[in-house]
Amino acid sequence: MARFALRRFSGLLFVLIGVSFITFFLAQIVPADPAATALGSNAREEQIAAYRKQLGLDQPAPVQYLQYMGRLLHGDLGKSIRTRRPVVDDLIDYLPATIELSLAAMSVALLIGIPLGILAALRRNTWVDGVARGFALVGGSMPIFYLGLLALGLFYRQLRWVPGPGRLDATVTPPTQITGLFTVDALLTGNWPVFANASAHLLLPALILGYFSTSVLVRMTRSSMLETLGQDYVRTARAKGLSERVVILSHVLKNAFPPILTTIGVTFGALLSGAVLTETIFNWPGLGRYATTSVTTLDYPAVMGVTLVAAFIYPLVNTFVDIGYSAIDPRVRVK
Amino acid sequence: MQPFRRFTTATARWLGLLMVLSLVLSACAAPAAAPAAGEATAPAAEAAAPAIAGEVSRADTLIFAADTTDLITLDPAVTYEFSGIQGEGSFYETLVSFTPGQSGVQPLLAESWDVKDDGDMWTVTFKLNPEAKFASGNPVTADDVVWSWGRAIDINKSPAFLLIDVAKVAKENLTAVDPQTFQVKLPKTVSPQVFLAAITFTVAAVVEKAAVEANMGTDMGESWLNDYSAGSGPYVLNTWDREVSITMDANPNYWGEPARLPRVIIQNMKDATNRLAAIETGDADVVQDLGPEQRTALEGNPDVSLFDGLNTQMIYLGMNAKMAPFDNPDVREAVRYAINYDEIIALTGGGAKTVQEIIPDSFLGHTGLNPFTQDIAKAKELLAKAGVAEGIEIEMLLPSDYPAGPIDFPTLAAKLQSDLAQAGITLNLRSLQFSELLNIYRAQESPMTLVLWGPDYPDPDGNATPFTTYAAKSIAFRNGWDDAKAADMAAAAALAPTAEERTKLYADLTEYVFHQGPYAMLYQPTRTYAVRNTIDGFNYDASDTPSVNFALIGAK
């Protein structure tokens, strides 16, 4: 299994190099000048030229790329043209917010999606199944942007059941920083009021962001369960006189799980991209919002930084999914 | 194996897998957290002194929600964005300022000044108000002024041109005659009035030399000033939570009328719908920039009042006088007569005012004349006279990602397209990212450009020169309009010694540009604010720096 893991991780490296190459040269095609953009419409010609030189934009593209990769090896992602801080600092500031939101959304998806899918499979063609499938249909088809705005309009503006957009109330001071995840940090420091406030703010965006993943998981779990339930060994297990609970847990669930695990890895990617929209609607200062702003302000170093981070996380999660896959399914290992 | 044993082995494997996953995910957070925690402790140690700690109740806090995407710095020598100025404008003060309701510059840190003609230079001598002191308690001295302006010139970032090019201030011409007297020598090429208007801007704000000098770091103190303020204004910076909010507290040592509320929080809220919800629920006390739909939603709301402030931005159409058919002034005039200005205002839902001259309303020299109304017959006549074929196609560039006040440029462009079609001109619309458009526009390669202009400082020359003087490499240049007469008129109006003379000269210039210029000026947008009825004192003035004065706002 170690060899398997090693192979998968080396593949990750090639993915990253490829992504950096494509992103870099795509950014070169954009016919606008980041230096002029940064300095504004009143900047003089000499100022723009000087700034271009400072940013290294007067070099040919391949040279710029090699310089970038060289710095990357030292952990230097360059300096954001907009915030004028090292991109690494920006990412460190904004990544925890996105991690918190994504983890919460994933938890929602797992805690609601899988049990609902199992239930739908076990109570096939009953009203329970219908509700579950309807629920999944809505989540899979409705645009997240629309869903988010509707939810905010209803639960915040009309009903006041949840607080407004943002990670905390404006008047609440963030907890002492340990992980950057407000809920976790508040728990770790025993700060209950902030924990309550942060959790209340996290609830709706996590539900909205997780809705798509939940829908996918419901359907995947349901179909995988149904397929497994129809297998011979299940019939055999029942024939042997095993209790239904043991049959489901021991035989059906374990064998139905691999496709579900793969789905989790795939939907994680959807979480990252969905985070861009969710963060905008819910005023969440995370990586998604940073990415949007960087793209529209032609902040090349920031765009590269965010893309590389996303390109790193997504295959990483899938690598662990694959490893997990091989842990539960011995047949994969042997291959 | 017994079923139960298999069950436990399987469970053990799953638990192992879950543990690995959670370890990995926390590992992702850990390297992120470790350097962040390292950074967090350093400023926290220094923060003990200047930051005002303690809880402030919601009732004592003003929450101002706005889109602060453009916020990048709180250093007055570097700030050139609206949000930045609104952020740091309450911490710092200038020698003189524009006060709403009063014309001309008013004393602030300087209680009086005089302008002497010294032959080849102007000498402006300011007497500082002896009461003026910084938040630290130290007095504001002429030394601090010399140092602050010198620093802004040395840093030479976006707003520096206001001091260097517009006000023609050079470091060697700044003198601290004595602690209360500050002197500037200016070349005769600049008008003292323009100089005074330019220094109301925060680039000429006075920072406490002792405080900033001790924290210069590698960027002349710019990073330090993003987390600490060193000014004499009614508020001091508590925290700037990047992308989230700016928290400021009332300056306990303020030398003037103290701020009414102990705390102000500028909250970043990018979405207009969220701002609407925030003002309705009371989660915000003031919100900035609401569109026509939000205005309609708030009309009749007993808890909220709407406030329209006239922005000094101008939305206009530029025609390239170097490219056919716009090299013929009759064609340019035809376009001006083809446009239906009233319907455009209707499109904005009343969120704009028709302004057809290059000097905006609220500036000296604004005439208020709007000579053009839609006259398709006249437009056609002018086009025929110029020999322009019916159905001629012209490309018009516009920004895709920037607001034209309360509406967006594509909507406005579509309206213009239909107006001009009536006169026989077919517009081919080309919608671009603002940065891309600027590139093409600057290179004089755009045949027709629908765009906006915001003056940098509240003096008519801030608009007149860019719009008339080819050599200034600004708007006239971008539209290929090289007109010596217009440039001379603008220069004379800038340097005329009295306000009355300047007004007359700008009126003449305006008349000239109406019919000779390559522009169809369209409108000046208003900015809509919504204010909870529990507070009073809300104010807005586009010439004021910052436009909203927080110190005057309080609870009813």
Given the structure, what is the number of helices of chain B?
Answer: 18
What structural class do the secondary elements of chain B suggest?
alpha+beta
Corresponding CATH architecture of the largest domain in chain B: Roll
Strand fraction of chain A equals under 5%
Provide the CATH top-level class of the largest domain in chain B: Alpha Beta
Largest inter-chain contact set: A-B, 68 and 64 residues
Q: What structural class should be given to the helix and strand makeup of chain A?
A: mainly alpha
Summed over residues and divided by their number, the pLDDT of chain B gives a mean of 88
Main β sheet profile of chain A = none
> What percentage of residues of chain B falls in helices of 4 or more residues?
25-40%
Number of strands of chain B: 22
Number of helices of chain A: 14
Mean pLDDT of chain A: 85
Looking at the structure, what is the overall shape of chain B?
globular
Describe this structure in words.
The complex is a heterodimer of chains A (335) and B (556). Chain A is mostly helical. Chain A is globular, with a radius of gyration of 24 Å. Chain A starts with a helix and ends with a helix. The mean pLDDT of chain A is 85. Chain B is α+β, with helices and mostly antiparallel strands and 556 residues long. Helix content of chain B is 36%, strand content 22%. In chain B, 50% of the residues are buried. At the A-B interface, α2, α5, α7, α11 and α12 of A face α1, β10, α8 and α14 of B.
Short overview:
The complex is a heterodimer of chains A (335) and B (556). Chain A has 335 residues and is mostly helical. Chain A is built from 14 helices and no strands.
Q: Which key terms come to mind for this protein?
A:
heterodimer; A: 335 residues; mainly alpha; 14 helices; 77% helix; B: 556 residues; alpha+beta; D-Maltodextrin-Binding Protein, domain 2; Dipeptide-binding Protein, domain 1; Dipeptide-binding Protein, domain 3; 3 domains; 10-stranded mixed β-sheet; 4-stranded antiparallel β-sheet; 22 strands
